[in-house]
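Quick check before the chapter quiz. The format below is the same one you will see on the exam, so make sure you can read both the input and the output lines.
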Amino acid sequence: MADSDADDNPCTTADTSAKGMARQWNRNIKREIRRIDRDVYSMTANEKKTIADMKALAAKKEMSSVKILAKEMVFLRKSRDRMLLTKTQLNSISNQLTQQVALMKLSNSFQQSADIMKSMNQIVNVAEVHDIVMKMGKEMENLGLIESIMGEAVDDALADIDTEEQTEAEIAKLLDELAIDNISLLPSTAVGIKGAKRVSEAQNRASLAREGIQ
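Here is the expected output.
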């Protein structure tokens, strides 16, 4: 999902002053936010199509196919929620950078910001923005704006892993939300041909929405 903007690499900026770097970081952040908006739009469109497929399969009592798509939907929603949270954190970093620049008068230097470091730590493990966050983090560390973000961030990656029981609970909640009566549906022993096609198409859409667009 790489953009072709000339300022893709924050390390190539010509203005290495604190204010110049802050402006460069803000440009990079705005580009990432635009990319997130496109991804979220794609995920939302994919969700609507998958819901339609699930309801069509449920009407044919192809419950195995419905559950496969429900699991894809659970993961897709988690990805979208993570991207929206990332957007919020990026906006917070951008606002704090703008405030830092506004406070600079005679001195062209940053004050160390625990808030910016906290926001960076919260999103450094998001695959979609990992590279840009790591690059900005190293530059911010060099300029005294934050401390190292690597140590605190790595451990947080494990906190997002769901157990099978949690996933099943979320699938059941989703089926209830979509008014698919799980109990009244007869269990199917195999996925029908049409159901398999719908599942394959939905999984392909989900894969593109989660990775895509990269």
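If your answer matched, good. The radius of gyration is 22 Å.
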